[in-house]
User: Fold these one by one.
Assistant:
Number 1:
Amino acid sequence: MSGLPTEMIDRWRDRPDPAPGEGMIYWHMLVGGDPTVVAMAEQAQRRLAGFSGLHMTPLNCLNMTVLIAGAANEISKEQIGQMAEAAARELQASRLSR
């Protein structure tokens, strides 16, 4: 028995779109500007090109989801601003400590 999948499933196909304000808030780290990441993604996309039905993320949009903050209807715009400010402070402190 092969360890490879025998069937591909589109995870977006049967997923209902949330109504405005009912989605999730995700924190993404954009990595499409990193030449090493782009080179690895290009290699992976070339290797996967023979499989039909795959959606390849555009290289300039490569990202990693690093946090699912929660449901949009449970987090205020003020809280989102506070999260962004806290992240900016942490990133600045990280740069200064190098």
Number 2:
Amino acid sequence: MNTATKSNNFFWPKITDLPSATAASDLGFWAAVAVATITTVFATIALVANTYILAIDAWAYFDAVLFALIAWRIRRRSGAFAVAGLCLFIFEKLIQFSQPEVASSGAVMALLFLLFFINGVRGTFAFHRYSREEAPAGVAQDV
């Protein structure tokens, strides 16, 4: 079966080689970019309105910067930052969903982002495994 015709699940991609590992890793990158962007938008609205929006205030800019840094490092295929992004996202969602006024808002989107962060972790670790396997003998690996 040809790889172009092989069906692939967008939410849980099959990782079989370096290109598929890169694509899975990119899901974590885009999740971190989206979280940083959405957080920045809500923090800006909260700052301008001088209020909390879904438990987000101006301090959320710090989170946005963290997720932007995580996105940059995931794009560079850092497994440690992929894991850090997943853990930070889970930690923040646990805190956010523990507050009664926002307990159910964004649950579906949070699950989608959680899947993307998990795929980012899967992809970055598979990327390093496949890049070691595909490297020609005698060539130094840049890890």
